[in-house]
Amino acid sequence: MTDPRLEQQIASARRQLDDTNAELWQISGGQGNDLYCRPGCGNCCTLAVNCSFPEAMILAPKLSAEQRHAVTERLPLLAQLCAAASHLKEFLRSYRQQAGGCPLLDEQQCCSLYAERPLSCRALLSTRPAAWCGVDFASLHPHEKQAFLSSLDADLVAFPSHYLARPLDLAATLELSLGDEFANEYGVKISGNLVWLLGLELNSQVGERLLRQDRGVIEWLLEQQERYPYLLQVTKRNHHEF
Asked: For residue range 11-37, what is the model confidence (pLDDT) as tens digits?
């Protein structure tokens, strides 16, 4: 699906967030607040990344055949983890332990679509060394956890994480705007797990069906949300009629 206005809005949102990040990188050293993100880390890429559907929809056609295969191959495991989890925290933990890194990582543990990565990925700027981005905090000794939390500057980070709050807040605002614009145009707001959303677009052509005003696609999405609540979030705009 091609929507030039949507692509322009996403490009603008990326530039706004990237400019903010560049500013934060520039001032971080001078204030003694180092940022530790480097190529090849990949630890944050084991997180269950969520994004808006418009971002996934624009990204899907840009995947290579190998990347499409990697995404599609991951989907059954995600469905299994979602079905087995009794609550969101359990799903997020099992995702990180069992799903492996993002299927878009290359052999050097770098994002193979770095320039096209979602806002939620762009927004992660770590104030601690890379090893902390891969820690399962539930497994830490209480004294270790307390020491870590005590070391954080709650005015700078999205407490209790060690990631800077400002880009995360901006990304959330931009994602909300993207979702609202999409909903105003197509009658439904969609967000969820990046890999799952890519799978929806690659295998079910959700964007194309919405563009064709397929009357059944929104109801189908709502059914999918019931089956996979930790992977897909859907809100129908009642005023919009196909």
From this structure: 999 999 999 999 999 887 655 568 999
Q: Distance between CA atoms of 102 and 70, rounded to whole angstroms?
A: 9
Q: In this structure, what DSSP letter does residue 239 have?
A: T
Read off the DSSP letter of residue 125.
Answer: -
Task: Report pLDDT for 237.
Answer: 82
**Predicted structure pTM score:** 0.93
Distance (Å, whole) CA 166 – CA 229: 28
Contact between residue 105 and residue 121 where contact means Cβ atoms under 8 Å apart: no
Question: What are the tokens at 38?
Answer: 């480097």
224 is written with which tokens? Answer: 């999918």
Burial class of residue 121 (count of CB atoms within 10 Å of its CB; 0-12, 13-18, 19+): buried
Separation of alpha carbons 42 and 33, rounded Å: 21
Domains of the chain: which residue ranges?
A: 4-236
**Interatomic CA distance for residues 25 and 16, integer angstroms:** 14
- Between CA 134 and CA 199 the distance in angstroms is 25
DSSP string, 28-44: HGGGT------TT--SG
Burial 47-72 (b: 16+ CB within 10 A, else e): bbbbbbbbbbbbbbeebeeebbebbb
Query: Mean pLDDT across the stretch 172-200?
Result: 96
- The span from the CA of 154 to the CA of 140, in Å, is 20
Distances (CA, A) of 26 to 29, 35, 39, 170: 7, 10, 18, 18
Report residue 170 as tokens: 């901006």
The strand pairing partners of 233, in sequence order, are: 191
> What are the tokens at 77?
């495991």
